[in-house]
Amino acid sequence: MRMAYELCLATAAGQVPTGPDWIHEVKHDGYRMLVIRENERVRLLSRNGTDWTKRYPWIAEAALKNRQKRFVIDGEAVILGVDGVSDSRPQA
To answer: Where are the domains of the chain?
Structure first.
């Protein structure tokens, strides 16, 4: 499936980049995902275009609570266990 947006991919580094032009995030063991909100419709799409909206409904619900009606977020869907370790398996 061809997508209108490309997801950012993780790049390994020996240290956190510094300076005003850099932002970074910790890489967990999750799924890279786009959250796309268009008015009252929210979709969660993986890198290959698979729709994960039904697998992570709480992310879609949170997106609907944002007062912005149209946006795209590039991020990583991660479930942390009680020990703080990521568990990327979708919940049933």
So the answer is: 32-77
Report pTM: 0.72
Instruction: List pLDDT tens digits, range 53-88.
Output: 999 999 999 999 999 999 999 888 887 888 877 765
Q: Which residues contact 29 (CB under 8 A, 6 or more apart)?
A: 78, 86, 87, 88
31, β-bridge pairs: 77
Positions marked active-site: 27
Q: Go through 12-48 and write b for each residue having 16 or more CB atoms within 10 A of its CB, e for each that does not.
A: eeeeeeeeeeeeeeeebebbbbbbbbeeeebbbbbee
- Whether 55 contacts 43, CB under 8 Å: no
Residue pLDDT, tens place only, 1-58: 556 777 777 777 788 888 898 877 777 777 889 999 999 999 999 888 899 999 999 9
